[in-house]
Amino acid sequence: MSAFNNALKQISRAAEIAGIQEETVELLRHPMREVKVNLPLIRDDESLLMIEGYRVQHNDWRGPFKGGIRYHQAVDLDEVRALATWMSVKTAVAGIPMGGGKGGVTVNPKELSEAEIERLTRSWTKAMRGVIGPEIDVPAPDVNTSPREMAWIADEFGHPAVVTGKPIEAGGSEGRSTATAMGGYYVLNALTETLLDAPIKTVVIQGFGNAGRMFAEICAKNGLKVLAVSDSRGAIMQADGLDIAAVGIHKDATGLVQDFECAENISNQQLLALECDLLVPAALENVLTVENARDVKAKMILELANGPTTPEADDIFFDRGIHVVPDVLANSGGVTVSYFEWDQNMKEERWSAKDVDEKLQDLMQKAADAVYERSEKYGVDLRKAAFVLALERLHEAKK
Ligand code: NAD
Predict the structure, then answer these.
(1) In the predicted model, what is the mean pLDDT of residues 133-146?
(2) Does one domain contain both 215 and 274?
(3) 27: closest CA among 60, 63, 54, 68?
(4) Total domain count, the chain
(5) 347 is catalytic
(6) Which residue has a Cα nearest atom 22 of ligand 1?
(7) Residue minimizing CA distance to atom 17 of ligand 1
(8) Quick one: DSSP state of residue 133?
């Protein structure tokens, strides 16, 4: 099933549970605006390459559209639509005054030079003038984009508040680079005591980028054992726990997590089926499906990636008593600190790392409590509860 259909199914299920007004649901089934652009990229050898770019603005009842930009060869309109829809849900769950949007460029940036990526990013920004803006739609990093790309966008557009996730020197916020992982860790702490009999000791992480690597570092710092990590080329495992700092150095030096001297190479599919307390998908969507959900041995799944679990896999996990902390809650720390960054830029303020962290922890605790409360009230899993919470808040905003 397509990612967007998954998102629609999740909305329908939640609307039915909480009896949300049909008109609200029908409006949320349709993104407000979808923009597709064809970007001409002059390559370093002066040849011309045409590349497709997108921005989908799903909903702005609660505030300006907000959501990352992804550079990936598999990006298409369906995927960007799904990601934009999840952003409207996520900003509502996090309780921040922003809406949902997402951008994408269909390209494998690993095949481009840095200068080509810069020209492409500036070209996307020019093409989106009038579409994005500090009070209209505020992009941020996603897969294969980083503070570097955000700084180029802010420079090209001419206002720091047009994007978040910028380097500190270009108007970024303290705590933004760690926010997604840190928020996930706060959500995890808020829920584990209520949901699990024993504390989490062992963790397996799929994806070793912004979200996954930082989460691995936070786990290691807090005494949890990270048994395995992976990237797009493969996975590694070490039953006694990986030395995450050393894996990071190895990854920076070689570009891979595999072939790390103190660990065994395994496949990405093997990683998902490892015995552990917590499984953290932190790569791409549709990773946990009807094909492999029965192989998962974790007690809990924390979705740092967007859309890693299909609705069918969700049902299997629910039946098997495996708790899934859904993306719209688990990774909402990123957009929450993005909102803090935007707020600081708009007010020309600079908050300390301590202030940002305290505000993040407070909002994550409140979001986790509100989701848990709905899961108890309706006797449903945390994803349905999070969607119920979001639909309630979106319906209020619409009124
Ligand atoms: P990233 O590009 O920094 O990292 C992605 C990682 O996943 C890389 O290590 C890559 O090698 C790995 N990967 C790709 N395909 C894989 C595969 N098939 N198997 C295993 N690993 C694979 O991206 P990111 O920013 O860390 O984002 C990861 C996920 O988290 C995405 O779903 C994104 O939407 C979500 N997310 C990120 C943020 C953020 O602040 N970075 C916020 C919210 C959600």
Answers:
(1) 95
(2) yes
(3) 60
(4) 2
(5) no
(6) 232
(7) 232
(8) B
What's the predicted TM-score (pTM) here? Answer: 0.92
> Measured between alpha carbons, how far is 238 from 243 in angstroms, rounded to an integer?
9
> Residue range 356-372: average pLDDT?
97
Who contacts 48 (Cβ-Cβ below 8 Å, separation ≥6)? 40, 41, 42
Q: Give the residues surrounding ligand 1 with Cβ less than 6 Å away.
A: 141-144, 180, 206-212, 230-232, 268, 282-284, 304-306, 331, 334
Give yes or no: residues 60 and 128 share one domain: yes
CB 386 within 8 A of CB 187: no
Q: Domain range for residue 216?
A: 179-330
44 Cα to the center of ligand 1, angstroms: 28
Q: Residue range 58-72: average pLDDT? A: 97
Average pLDDT over residues 372-379: 96
The chain-wide mean pLDDT, for the chain, equals 96
- 108 shares its domain with 218: no
Same domain? 139 vs 228: no
Shortest-distance Cα residue to atom 4 of ligand 1: 209
What pLDDT is stored for residue 307 in this prediction? 87
